[in-house]
Amino acid sequence: MCQILGATLAVLVVLEGAFTVLGARQHIEERLIGWQGEQYSPFDQPVDSDVGDGSLWSADETARSAWIQTISWRPRAFIYHNFLSDAEVRHIIDLARGQMKRSQVVGSKEEGVVDDVRTSYGTFLKRNQDPVIAAVEKRLALWSALPVSHQEDMQVLRYGPTNKYGPHIDGLGRVATVLMYLVEPDHGGETAFVNSVWSHPELAGQAERANMSKCARGHVAYKPKRGDALLFFDTKPDYVSTDESSMHTGCPVVEGVKWNAVKWLHGTPFRPEDYEKALKEPYVPLPDPGVCTNLQDMCDTWAKQGECKNNPGYMVGDSDGMGNCRLACNDCEPCQEGDMACYERNRSSGGYLNLDESELKGV
Ligand SMILES: *[C@@H]1O[C@H](CO)[C@@H](O)[C@H](O)[C@H]1NC(C)=O
Ligand SMILES: *[C@@H]1O[C@H](CO)[C@@H](O)[C@H](O)[C@H]1NC(C)=O
User: Fold this and answer.
1) Left, alpha or beta for 252 (phi > 0: left; psi -120 to 50: alpha)?
2) Range with the lowest mean pLDDT among 189-193, 228-232, 352-356?
3) Ligand 1 pocket: which residues have CB below 6 Å?
C-alpha cells in the first residue's frame, strides 16, 4: 500500500515538473500547431545554463508570442517575429562580446583613427556551443527544414554608422540565410532586397509608414527589431540554382549601433567533422584577448627569428582570430592586476571591442 502511494506521489511530482515547462511550450504551440517535429524530447538536454532550461523554446519571462509572416515569394523570405527572447539575445551577446574583433577600419592605424563606433566587429559561436545556442539551432532547423548539420557556425556582428554591404547574393553553397536581430539601430541598418516584390500590397504600405532609411525605401526591406529573425532562400526550390531575386543589401546604419547574428544554411552537411566534434567534445572557451600573453612556449624564439613580421596572422592575429605570441611581438603590454584601462588597451591593440553597455539599450 505504502509503496503504491509512494509511486503515485513520485508520478505526480514528475508531472508537475513537466507541466511547468510544457506551459511555456503550449503557449507557442497554440499558434504554430503541428510545428514541432514529433521526435524531439525537451528533457534529454543537460541543464547547466543561465537561460537554457534544456527545452527547445525559451521559457523565460521575456519570451513574447511568436508568429511567422511571409514578406516575399521572390525571393522566398519570411519574418519570424520574436524568435529569440530578450534573455537569449543577452546570452548571445555575452558569449560573443569578449571576442568581437574589428573586421574593417575607417581611417588608417597610423593616424590613430580606430573608432569603436564607425568600425564593424564580429566573431563566431560554434554549433552546439552551449544549450542555449543548441536550442536556437534546433528551432532554426525546424523552421528552415534543414538540419543543424547543414548550418554554419553563428556569426555575431556589430555595425556602427557607415558600415554597409553593397547588393550581393550569398552564394558559396549556401541555400538560405537567417538574420537574427539583437540590437536595433536608431536609424538605418535595414536588410533590403533590391530585385524583389512584396508578397502582399498591404506590406508595401506598412513599410512606407515605417520610416526606413533612403537605402531601403521602395524595396522589400526589413527594419531590424530585437528578437526577430529573417529567413530567406538564396536558391530556387531545387536548392541548387541561384535565385537572383535574393540579391540584398545591408543598408548602412545611420544612427546608433546594430548587432545581429547570422546563420547560413547549406543543402548538404557543412564541415561535418567539426559538427561531429562539437556534439562529442565540450566547448573550450577561447583565450581572453585582454590578457597579454604568449600562448606557445616557442614565442620568444620565433619573435627573435622575425616571425612577428613574416607570419603576422599566426603571431599577432588577423580577422580570423587572436595571435599566439602577442606579448613576444610587443602587440600588447603587461599590466598590473586589476588595471582595467590597461586591459582595455590590451584589447584595443589587438583589434577587440571594448563594449559600452549603454549601446545594448537595456537588453
Ligand atoms: C525618421 O527618422 C529620422 C532619422 O532618425 C528622424 O529624424 C525623423 O524624425 C523620423 N521621422 C518620423 C516620421 O518618425
Ligand atoms: C593585460 O595583460 C596583462 C599581461 O601582460 C595581464 O597580466 C593583465 O591582467 C591584463 N589586464 C587586465 C586588467 O587583466
Assistant:
1) beta
2) 352-356
3) 186-187, 211, 255
Residues 70-97 pLDDT 10s = 999 999 999 999 999 999 999 999 999 9
Lookup: cell for 147 = 538540419
DSSP result, 178-238 = EEEEEE--SEE--EEETT-EESSHHHHHHHHTT---TTTTTSEEE---TT-EEEEESB-TT
Cell numbers found for residue 37 = 517535429
Q: What is the value of pTM for the model shown?
A: 0.79
Ligand 2, from 291, 329, 330, 340: best to mutate by most atoms within 8 Å of Cβ? 291
Q: Which domains does the chain have, with CATH numbers?
A: 67-280 (2.60.120.620), 298-359 (no CATH)
Q: Which secondary-structure segment (H or E) carries 28?
A: helix 2-29
Query: Which cell numbers in the block locate residue 83?
Result: 524568435
- Pairwise CA distance, residues 178 & 135, whole Å: 15
